[in-house]
């Protein structure tokens, strides 16, 4: 099927940020008395907006995270991004193929606009994503697995949900795309297929994506 809009998740799909951010999140939660392994963080928070961290910690412990939790966490993440972040191999080539084929695309991320921009500037992907192609859970208030973010991106791009395909690597993101009535292809570089149930198809290398999209 040829789609009218390709919607990319950001973390783990365009930028290789999931190992960095989940390692830091697990470490910070553990510091605060909420023991969390890297694997726990991937399972519970990968693909989610920050409110999910607060919600789950509150449900499980009956305690609230510090008021400055988001600020401290993001400062650590952005420092790591500026020092270490790399693009997902092949991501820029996929974007080149979409431009060459005249297929619109955008990014819709649970991360904040600042997080997206810091990562894109470090990896050089900012050249592909002007402001009008960047959508964040900040824009809608509810992050994945709610469909709001993907529906907002489709509306702003002027494309019906049924004509969109989402490229995701998280369980929550796949759920959000399906709830929005969109096709979704699961990127399995970090996430096993069984964690991305409901995806229309799966691929493990970005080099495979242009053919999947019929480019």
TrEMBL record:
Cofactor: Mg(2+)
One function term, GO molecular function aspect: hydrolase activity
Record CDD domains: HAD_BPGM_like
Record-linked InterPro entries: Beta-PGM-like, HAD-like_sf, HAD-SF_hydro_IA, HAD_sf, PGP-like_dom2
Short name of one Pfam family: Hydrolase
UniProt cross-references to Gene3D superfamilies, sorted A to Z: HAD superfamily/HAD-like, Putative phosphatase, domain 2
Superkingdom, natural source: Bacteria
Entry keywords, A to Z: Hydrolase, Magnesium, Metal-binding
Family assignment from sequence similarity: Belongs to the HAD-like hydrolase superfamily. CbbY/CbbZ/Gph/YieH family.
Protein name as catalogued: Hydrolase
């Amino acid at each position: 099927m040829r789609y009218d809009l390709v919607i990319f998740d950001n973390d783990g799909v365009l930028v290789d940020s999931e190992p960095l951010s989940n390692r830091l999140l697990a470490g910070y939660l553990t510091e605060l008395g909420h023991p969390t392994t890297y694997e726990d963080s991937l399972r519970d928070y990968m693909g989610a907006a920050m409110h999910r961290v607060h919600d789950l910690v509150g449900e499980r412990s009956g305690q609230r995270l510090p008021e400055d939790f988001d600020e401290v966490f993001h400062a650590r993440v952005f420092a790591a991004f500026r020092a270490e972040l790399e693009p997902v191999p092949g991501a820029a080539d996929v974007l080149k193929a979409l431009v060459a084929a005249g297929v619109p695309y955008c990014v819709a991320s649970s991360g904040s606009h600042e997080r997206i921009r810091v990562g894109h500037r470090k990896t050089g992907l900012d050249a592909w994503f002007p402001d009008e192609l960047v959508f964040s859970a900040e824009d809608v208030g509810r992050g994945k697995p709610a469909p709001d973010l993907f529906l907002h991106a489709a509306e702003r791009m002027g494309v019906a949900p049924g004509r969109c395909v989402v490229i995701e690597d998280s369980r929550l993101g796949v759920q959000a795309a399906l709830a929005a009535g969109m096709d979704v292809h699961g990127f399995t570089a970090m996430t096993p297929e069984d964690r991305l149930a409901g995806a229309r198809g799966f691929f493990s290398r970005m080099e495979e994506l242009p053919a999947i999209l019929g480019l």
